[in-house]
Amino acid sequence: MQRSDGRTPDQIRPLHFELNIAPHASGSILVAMGNTRVICGVMIEESVPRWMKEQNVSGGWLTAEYSMLPYSTTTRKPRDISKGKLDGRSTEIQRLIGRSLRAVVDLEKLGPRTMWIDCDVLQADGGTRTAAITGASLAVAIACRKLVDEKKLPAPPIRKLVAAISAGILDGKAIVDLNYDEDKAVTVDFNLVATEDGEFVEVQGSGEEATFSQAELDHMLTLGRKAIGDLIAAQRAILARLMVAPA
């Protein structure tokens, strides 16, 4: 099976990371997966949320915010602030980003700090949440190394890298890294988040007015693991070049 853009079913879109896109952030990345582009920035506050103090919770905290900029889609998307509340999709995605990164960051080692991850979609062509997680992982790794370089911590609190990919069933075949046109056409839609050692953090999936078999599920998971391995290899190559690979 060959897709409309010429990719094979297991092939991710062209991937590119641009570092230090936001100079005031502790770590920042512009991640491009095909025509999807997301800025991921990390800032660190030397304090923890009030609820942690009130409940005497030790360590630090990591949280995320996600938004699609008005010009990220072909028709203008109003800012959430103009509606007076965050829409349900943005809330779901930023919680997913937060969960994904908390799974790989040792909050005790982070200490009494809050790590803020901001993911802003510049251009949307499918897979914005998965690109945000992949970019955020790299930005967090860089921010953690900066804490060490500034002698605020003896070692980076990030334990391993994490990445995410979409998968689906199109014309009866499993594919990964769906662009927008594919996302509209698939009968099954999945999002997979996994660590560099192959452990899943989250698996989201549902049929789009359709069902799917165990064999189809297994095939999507297999393709998803391979794709996530490709993403993490690219993350590792960037970190090796910067000599900031997490311990």
CATH architecture, by name, is 2-Layer Sandwich
Largest sheet: 5 strands, mixed
| Principal-axes shape call | globular
Q: How large is the count of helical segments?
A: 7
Cα distance spanning the termini? 40 Å
Strand and helix order: EEEHEHHHEHEEHEEH
Strand arrangement within the widest β-sheet reads 1-2-3-5-4
> At the fourth CATH level, what is the homologous superfamily?
GHMP Kinase, N-terminal domain
Overall pLDDT level: 94
By CATH, the topology is Ribosomal Protein S5, domain 2
**Low-confidence spans: pLDDT under 50, at least 5 residues?**
none
Number of strands: 9
Reading off the top of the CATH hierarchy, the class is best stated as Alpha Beta
> What is the strand content?
25-35%
**What is the radius of gyration computed over CA atoms, rounded to a whole number of angstroms?**
18 Å
Count of distinct structural domains: 1
